[in-house]
Amino acid sequence: MPSLAKVVLPTGILMAALAVLPMFSSGYHVSFTIQVFMWIALAGSWNIISGLTGYVSFGHVAFFGVGAYTSALLITKAGWHWLPAGLAGCGPAALLALLIGYPCLRLKGPYFAIAMLGLNEVVRALVSYFEGLTGGGSGISLPPINATVPVYYAMGATALAVVVTTYLIINSRFGLRLISIREDEIAAETMGIDTARMKLYAFLISAAFPGIVGGFYAWYASHIEPMGVFPLITTITMIIMCLFGGAGTVLGPVIGATLLSIMQELVWARFLFVHQAIFGALIIGVVLLMPRGILGVARQYFRLPRTV
Amino acid sequence: MPDTAILEIRNATKRFGGVTALNGCSLSVAAGKISGLIGPNGSGKTTLFNCITGLERLHGGQILFKGRRIDGLKPHRIARRGISRTFQVTRVFPQLTAFENLLAVTGTAFDAAHERADELLAFVKLDRLRDEFAGNLSYGQQKLLEFIRVLMTDPELILLDEPAAGVNRTLLNELLDVLTRLRDQGKTILIVEHDMKVVMGLCETIFVLDYGEKIAEGPPSLIQGNERVIEAYFGR
Asked: In terms of C-beta density within 10 A (0-12 exposed, 13-18 middle, 19 or more buried), how is residue A284 classed?
């Protein structure tokens, strides 16, 4: 067991610091940290299906977008408070995951990735098409928000929930089964593991959280439109953050999301026009030099428990 | 009949494109015995294993386990009925530790599973490597791990695809000992093996496949002299 002083204390201090941050800092720091929370939650969610089972989802932003539209509609049309509306984003996201996961999780390797890519395009097209409900291409405008601090806590809690969920999964037999699917699905199935069901459960969990994140995002952004909440680049960013930190680990997505968010912010501020090129070069570097991520490299030098 | 059949293959047929891997193959495996399945390369042994465990679907025929049909069931359902297997080329979970490889496959209570896993690791002398990633084990060690992973699910019928290949003599003798003990506990074991010494010394009944058909069946002494068998192996 990890010692109390080594793990609990620094974690506690970090959490306390994050909890009081809005009281001492500027709006910029709060909004930047909201971004980091958002990416931790998204990269962490992607990790649950793709990092653990090895089924690479290239359409994960679809769940984010569906959550965003759900909450935007509940707020504008049904007059809900933003908090329950945001949380409600997980419902349709999980439902969508159920509908698409049931047939598509049978597809192996790149075929699943491609099917998920298609899903995102389909959902985006549908959202644009049903103009009466969704406002079509021009999207939905929400009431302007006057306080970002509540969103800060909501997003922070979501990120924390993703990390805790991942920790619990990885420490359970369910988690071992998910990893065994990634390692050798045929062997897992032959040994009596109901791989189809395990994958579906993981997929539902993995889709529900981006739904919530999208739900809060809609309120935070005050305006959503199809191109804004279904961009492929968001999925790709989740993937890179997760791989950068270490896929299939608890803290990998946290480390990846935090470092890359900071890096992106620094690069973006200094090299406005080439920042995407620099970011792209970084991605290539990560994939080439440390395909197992930061924690993967750390694991070669230190004996880390899987539960990190 | 004194022996009750635990596994019955009836007229199993399986084609891959133009190749007929199983051609109306029928055999019945007696409960509580060690049986061997031999035949030249490509005679359909592994295909038969794959069909029994549900990885491949039959084009014709039936497979019955304890009197109930299992062909067409998903592999995990078949496994839960009590059939477990190893693979010709080991299929451990490389990035799980030896211990976790065992834990992942059981449905029993956590404490009982931990205890059983440790017991089995000690049993094949892998307890020293309990927390090592399975991918870091040697080939022979991986074979042992795969073998005890089978035992972890406590199956009634154990299918072993070339258990002796790549395992050194000392280890092999221990493994054969274990198989005999498992048989004495009431387990049924079906082995695909090329090492004739192993097959002849261990098995009570041997089935010989050639071109997807059973061409002979009987105790080792009879199989060794069987003309059709000699012909299948060495040609006319």
From this structure: exposed
Contact at CB, B80 and A193, closer than 8 angstroms = no
Token pair, residue A263, equals: 């890096």
CB contact set of A255 (below 8 Å; sequence gap of 6+):
A244, A245, A246, A294, A295
Q: Provide the shortest C-alpha distance from residue A196 to chain B (in Å).
A: 10
The amino acid that residue B213 corresponds to is E
Let me know: does A174 contact A198? Beta carbons within 8 Å: yes
Task: Give the ipTM.
Answer: 0.91
Residue B236 binned pLDDT confidence (cut-offs 50, 70, 90): low
Burial of residue A302 (CB within 10 Å: 0-12, 13-18, 19+) is exposed
Q: What is the largest CA-CA distance in chain A?
A: 57
Amino acid at A62: A
Is residue A3 predicted with pLDDT exceeding 70?
A: no
Q: Considering the entire predicted model, what is its pTM?
A: 0.91
Instruction: Note the pLDDT tens digit of each residue in A37-62.
Output: 999 999 999 999 999 999 999 999 99
CA distance B171 to chain A (A): 24
